[in-house]
Predict the structure.
Amino acid sequence: MDNSEADTERTAHAPVEDLPPRLAEDEFYRALASSKRRRLLSYLLETTDSTVDELASVLSGWEATATGTMRTQRDRLNRRIELIHVHLPLLANTGLIEYDPATGSVELESISPPVADIIRQSINAEDRSPSPTDA
């Protein structure tokens, strides 16, 4: 069993008092309901901080990879608009990120290991799922 499987096993059987309260919050699951937000959080788990422009580029790149098509500047602008008006405010209100609209800076808040595991596992599962073009 590798380390990630061992960590998952420990998290799955952790006593309730060891689990973070966030796991009982509906807002947390609403925040994770979007693939874009899960990918954004996954990226921030690795980099800790970023900017709106960088995140728009990253999301556009993931979409291009997933669909096998080139993305245009317009697609990137649309991702940026979605980030500013939908995704980043929701994640900030949930307490998962700190977002400063004035500077465009985005920083991951302190996330407990079980929450980080859920984010990583959801991305791993999504990456292993056949895409609509594979079917």
User: Anything to note?
Assistant: The mean pLDDT is 82. DSSP finds six helices and three strands in the chain. Helices lie at 3-12, 26-32, 35-47, 52-67, 73-94, 113-128. The radius of gyration is 16 Å.
